Amino acid sequence: MSKTYNFCAGPAALPEPVMLRAQQELLDWNGLGVSVMEISHRSKDYQELANKAEKDLRNLLDIGDEFAVLFLQGGASLQFASIPMSLLHSGREAEYVENGVWSKKAAEEAARFGKVNMINAVNIDENGIRSLTDSQSWNRTENPAYTHFTSNETIEGMRFSQVPQTNGPLIADMSSCILSERLDMKAFDLIYAGAQKNIGPAGMTIVIVKRELFEQMKFDGLPKVFNYEAQAKNGSMLNTPPTFAWYLASLVFDWLQEQGGVMRMEELAKQKSQLVYDCIDEDDFFTNPIAVKDRSMMNIPFFLKNESLSEKFLIQAQEAKLMGLKGHRSLGGMRVSLYNSVPLEGAQALVKFMREFKTLNG
Amino acid sequence: MSKTYNFCAGPAALPEPVMLRAQQELLDWNGLGVSVMEISHRSKDYQELANKAEKDLRNLLDIGDEFAVLFLQGGASLQFASIPMSLLHSGREAEYVENGVWSKKAAEEAARFGKVNMINAVNIDENGIRSLTDSQSWNRTENPAYTHFTSNETIEGMRFSQVPQTNGPLIADMSSCILSERLDMKAFDLIYAGAQKNIGPAGMTIVIVKRELFEQMKFDGLPKVFNYEAQAKNGSMLNTPPTFAWYLASLVFDWLQEQGGVMRMEELAKQKSQLVYDCIDEDDFFTNPIAVKDRSMMNIPFFLKNESLSEKFLIQAQEAKLMGLKGHRSLGGMRVSLYNSVPLEGAQALVKFMREFKTLNG
């Protein structure tokens, strides 16, 4: 039996060794005779797990003590609300850099709570190729409450390879690229990421926030659990956290460290995505509408020149145990997601299949 | 090797057959070759799971179509905020019936968003015995936006065996008793419950809300994901739900139906709790400070008359593989939680241990 490779955009594949270990200890964790999900988050055993997970994440991303690291519920979508609700007040304006569906959603949600300057960062040329514009050309806010951008747009497959310049706090949604490339934490004031792509299962969100930013936050009239400062003081346990998701994240962090950390993941992300882009670019059988400089290493939407073949492609891919390739419902076509858990062999198997399909249908 | 029995208050034990099945199919669910937590919540396979879980829960609690059933994130604590934020407006007042730590927390959170009438429902007699007062004696609000009560107080071990009378919408936090006793849904307008006691792992909250109540809700200025009506319209998938928790809940619902449903759970809850209360009440070696009529079937705090023996009790219980018996940090002593997943044999083993301890230390 050949192996299944999972290219889902999220909830997405988890590393095989992580899943094997989770399975092995699902009924008896840490010698307790019960599952890790069946014990109190305030127990000594669980606290050690939680603390180690935080320490490992700090190590992986080189996060200093000036940042708090939070493990929260609600998804990135809840952060779309809680960030402006706590930071966007007294008539100030926030900059939202828009380059796809998720950055637009974040901006629209923020606009429900305060003044938002939506900056369109995408240029579409005469051939329909999308590229990110230079931040020098943007219509900037003079003294923004903060600037928000989405490092990697999961649906369009577009990535900021450079951190945008800003003259206020910088906030990034890194849901689909965190831990896949090195970060210079000094550039950021707040980073958040839904877990279900590069961290663990759906139902947890990691927030990395500079403690200095607490001074600019107001929590009156907000749900208590939105209070980033109180969450930081309480080890993300103002209420019961999603303990199993946190545990799986801790296994993922272990695995990442064994693999050689984020630097190794970045090398692999380059290799895997380059394999796919090379296959797309070698002729016009497949297309990808993003300028080379702005292409995502994590999510690659692609289309068949002959669109009528799309369904055949997807059915045959499924038969070849290449799953999760259907494009987002807003774009159609195909999309391959190459998160950390997808091995190089997965990208190789996909490219082999794409070339065979091309030969048979070209 | 003897079996471990888990009396944790939450995150709590899950049914053994559920855990075994989850373990078995953790790496290959529904023949997909990947885990249920590694696929899109919008995939056909997952949608079927989600729909079946809702159908099963409706069946278990006899929930009619006039109610929407939601599977949300954020814990009961987030409901403490989103309920008043959506319902408590235009100068109206909400009644909060207070009978323990959690109902007080719910009331305090609501008071941050609107006018709250906190009704103390507990009488403490000269011997320190706590009982629920008659709702006739309460200082009621004439036309409340809603009345909120906590069916079962997890920390104090106190239960409303009768639904309080109300002259407005009735809202209940049933986190620690849902699915352990039959409900007359006609009495309620909104019920919510954190999953980590009787439903599944931490990180999910079930909300059962009468659709009529949407008309009284306002969602302007609230996070989009707080919009109960939109969540209902979108199958609780306004954003990525906690898919693995939802899956485990679906296995729990299957198991409950196989066991004979909520009626059987209620019988067992009576039996299990009676065993423990009988052991406590047979002499003054152990004590429980709740009036018999108001005692919880799910959570039983108890104390040693000779408090200096508490640590020894807890150590020896742990050695006997009776885990999770340490009392809540606010009360000390011991607490046993007897949720649906704790088998009758667990309660019997505990009572046997308690009697032996009594004989040796009495």
**What would the principal axes of the Cα set say about the shape of chain A?**
globular
Reported CATH architecture of the largest domain in chain A:
3-Layer(aba) Sandwich
Which oligomeric state applies? homodimer
Helix fraction of chain A by DSSP (H/I, runs of at least 4) = 25-40%
- Write out the strand line-up for the largest beta sheet of chain A, numbering strands in chain order: 2-12-11-10-7-3-4
Radius of gyration of chain A: 21 Å
Indicate the mean pLDDT of chain A.
Answer: 96
The pair of chains with the biggest contact is: A-B, 62 and 62 residues
CATH topology of the largest domain in chain A: Aspartate Aminotransferase, domain 2
Task: Report strand % of chain A.
Answer: 15-25%
Number of domains of chain A: 2
CATH superfamily of the largest domain in chain A: Type I PLP-dependent aspartate aminotransferase-like (Major domain)
Query: What order do the SSEs of chain A take from the amino end to the carboxyl end, as H and E?
Result: EHHEHEHEEEEEEEEEHHHEEHEEH
So what's the CATH class of the largest domain in chain A?
A: Alpha Beta
* Low-confidence sequence ranges of chain A: none
Total DSSP E strands of chain A = 16
What's the end-to-end separation of chain A, in Å? 28 Å
Count of discrete alpha- or pi-helical segments spanning 4 or more residues of chain A: 9
Q: What class, by secondary structure content of chain A? A: alpha/beta
- What profile does the largest beta sheet of chain A have? 7 strands, mixed
What attributes characterize this protein structure?
homodimer; about 350 residues; alpha/beta; Aspartate Aminotransferase, domain 2; Aspartate Aminotransferase, domain 1; 2 domains; seven-stranded mixed β-sheet; three-stranded antiparallel β-sheet; globular; serine biosynthesis (chains A, B); pyridoxine biosynthesis (chains A, B); EC 2.6.1.52 (chains A, B)
